[in-house]
Amino acid sequence: MKNTLLKISLSLLLILFFSCKEDSKNEEKETDVKSSVSENYNISILVDLSDRISLKKNPNPTMEFYQRDLGYIKSVSEAFTQHLKSKRMRQIDDKMQLFFNPEPESPEINSIADQLKISVDKNNASKKLLNSINETYAAKTSKIYQSAIDDDKYIGSDIWNFFDSKAEDQCVEKGFRNILVILTDGYMYYDGTKFKNGNLSSYLTPQLIKQNGLNTNDWEKKFTTENFGFVKTGTNLSNLEVLVLGINPDKNNPYEEKVIKAYWAKWLKEIKISHFEIKSAELPSNMDKIIKDFILEKA
């Protein structure tokens, strides 16, 4: 009788032990889900409105480069809304915005850009707002590109200055996961920010790559030993993640794409950006998963 009671007691203890262990596992899973879901996003999109989008200078019969940009922006906004919809309404505190540098002279473009500064929190979050974001971004960014193309006045791309003097203030907020998506062909040029420091420069053009002798198969050795690259900016952007989309190298140099990516990778590491990716100007259908994986992955 005593043995039977002892066996029953042990069985009950084992059942209780494993039940508690399972509950503990479930609580851990719920905690992981909640911590992932409640993360707040601050997404910025920096658009290079230089002549890279010109239909006259850079036509592309497969898909024009401005149309590729619009496809990339669509994927970014869809990732943003997917993130919002994964959260409880009271947890939402997320932002998305669009920048240019320098700002276009067109008042219409700048007005539309202001309308694309979206801030969603528990006070204004609604299904209607969340469902409208993708359509709003698609329609308004299309107007921006069309206006720039119609205007046909391309003043260049001052990405270096944006990182040096604006990125920290405009793209980084404490308590957020800060993501900057840059739409560019990888080159940088702006008359007002053009200088060199030895083999380092604030700009990058096909002509400069050729002048630097980085158009042969030993370009990598030369790049490293002679310290080529962008001039380091004075900012520490360790709280920023960067996704560069649209690299479109000059076809006259078979090493151009690798050189451009080497410039960018070296520069981003120097300003303490540890999480970044640099992608070529593929079709939006091929880039959709890459963009969404970058944005929606756990930081």
UniProtKB/TrEMBL annotation:
Name the record gives this protein: VWFA domain-containing protein
PROSITE patterns cross-referenced by the UniProt entry: PROKAR_LIPOPROTEIN
